[in-house]
Amino acid sequence: MRVRYFLCVCLLLAAVVQPKPLWAANKDETEYFAIFMEGKKVGHAIQSRVVANGKVTTTEKVTITMSRANVAATINMTETSIETSNGTPLGFEVIQELAALVMKMVGTVDKQGMLNLTVTSMGTEQKSTLEWPNGAVMAEGLRLLTLNKGLKEGTEYTAKIFSPGILQAIDARIHIGPKQNVDLLGRVVALTKITTRYVMPGAGEIVSTSYVDDNLRMQKTISPIAGMQMEMVACAKDFALGQNEVFEVISKLFLASPEPLDNVDLAKSITYYLSPTQEGMSLAIPSTDNQRARPLKNGKVMVTVEPVAAPAGAKFPYKGEDKTVLEAMKPNRFLQSDHKDVIELARRAIGETKDAAEAVKRIESFVAKYMERGSLSVGYASAVEVAASRQGDCSEFSVLTAAMCRAVGIPAQVAVGVAYVKEWGGLHNCFGPHAWVQAYVGGDPASREPGKWIGLDAAFKSVGLDGYGPGHIALAVGSGNPEEFFNLINTLGLFKIDKVVVSTEKTKE
C-alpha cells in the first residue's frame, strides 16, 4: 500500500504552506522549529536568510520521520531561493532526499521571464524551460509584502507564491486576525493570528493558521493533512534537532470496510456510500471511465466503480488530438518515458504485439514480475530509479508502469486513492492508500469507437491478485508528480465508508 507517499506529501506541505520567519532586513539569521503530527514530534525545520552582494538567499531544511508498519522512514528536503533585495526572483535549488534516493532541481529565472530548470537524479540530468508565473514571489518577495501590509486586525490581501519544491505558483488569500494567547510548548505568549487560504491546483483550498509576534516573526503554524494536524513551533535549536517520537501513520490512513468483501475481483461493480467525517465538508471525488461519483445530501457521495474493457483492435502509438490524452504521453521528472532504460524495458515487455490492449496488459505483467518488494524505508522514486533498483511498493510499481506505457506511445496516468485488502500490516477488511495506473487504449481518429482509460495495477498483480478492480476508489489522477496529488490532503482521512453494494451484473447508465 502506498503509505510512503503520505510522507512525501507531509514534507511538501511543510515546505509549501508554512510561512517563513520575517527577519530584520540586511541581517543574517537562523530560526529553528519543531514539527508535530497529532501532538507528537516527528521532525524539524531550519530556516535561514543571508544578505550579500545585493542578493537575498533564503534556505529552509525540513526533516520528517514517521513509522509505517514499525519501519521508520525519514524524508529530507532543502529548498533555497535566491532573490534581489527588492524581492525579484533570480533562482532556486531544491534537494529531496527520500531514503537513499536523491533528486536535485536547480532553476534560474532569466531576463525574459523564463525559468531554466535542471533536474538531476540517479546520475541522469534533464533540462527544460518553463514560463515563470507572472507576479509570483518567493521567500523575500513574500517577506517584503507582509512587512508592507502589517498586522492591523481585519487586513486582507492576496499573494501568488512560487514554491520551488512543486514548481508551481500557489494563490494565497491572507487574513489578519486578532491578538490572542498561544501556548508555545508550555510558554503562553500573546500573538497575532493569521489565516492563509492556499488554493492548490485541482485540490481546492488548504487553510493554514499561523501566529506571529509583534516583529512579524512566525511562532506557530497549524495545517491540516488527511484529517490530522501538522504543527510547526519555534523553539530552541537543541529541542528542534532532538529526538523524535514514534508516530505510526498506518492506522491513521486506513478505512474500515462496513463489511468483509469476498471475491472482489469477481464483482462487475461496487457502489460505495461515502460520508465526510467533518461537519460542513464536501467530498471531491473524481469521475473517470472506471468510476462515477454522484453528490448526495450533506456532503455525502455515492461512487460506483465499474472497470471498463479495452476497445478491441486498438493500435498504438496514439495519434489522436485530445489534449488531456496527449499530455499523458509526455515525459516528466518522475515518468521519464524518454530515458533509454525505460524504453528498453517497455520494448522487452510488449514484444512484437501491435495491439494496444495486449501491450498494456503485457507491461502490467512485466512490471509485476520485474519488481521486488523492497524496504518500506525507500522514498517516492522516479521511473528511472525504479528501473535500476527494482524495489518499492505500489508507488514505484505505478510510476514504472506508466512510464513504460508512455515510452511506446500509449498515454498513461497515475491514480491514487484507496483499495480494498483482506489483511495488511495487522489490519483486516479495510481500504488503504494505494496507487495504480490508467492507460488510454483506442481513440484513433480513423475509428468511431472512443478510447478508454483502462485500469492497471502491477502491485496487486505481483502478490497474486487480479490487478485493478472494483475494490479501487480513485481520489486523484495525474502525471505521477507529487504536487498533483494534494487532493489527498483534502480527502484521505476525512471520510468514512457507510455502505457498500456489490453487483455481479453490469450496472445500467
Walkthrough of the structure:
The protein has 509 residues and is an alpha+beta fold. The protein has 2 domains: 4-250; 310-485, C8orf32 fold (Roll). The chain has 11 helices and 25 strands. The chain has helices at 4-17, 139-149, 237-240, 250-253, 323-327, 340-350, 356-370, 383-389, 394-407, 458-462, 487-491, and strands at residues 29-37, 40-52, 55-68, 71-84, 89-98, 101-109, 114-121, 124-131, 156-163, 168-184, 187-200, 204-212, 218-225, 228-234, 255-256, 269-276, 291-295, 301-305, 372-373, 391-392, 412-424, 427-441, 452-456, 472-478, 495-503. Strands 8-7-6-5-4-3-2-1-14-13-12-11-10-9 form a 14-stranded antiparallel sheet. Strands 15, 21, 22, 23 and 24 form a 5-stranded antiparallel sheet that branches. It has a 4-stranded antiparallel sheet with strand order 17-18-16-25, with no helix packed on it. Strand 7 and strand 8 form a beta hairpin. The two termini are 32 Å apart.
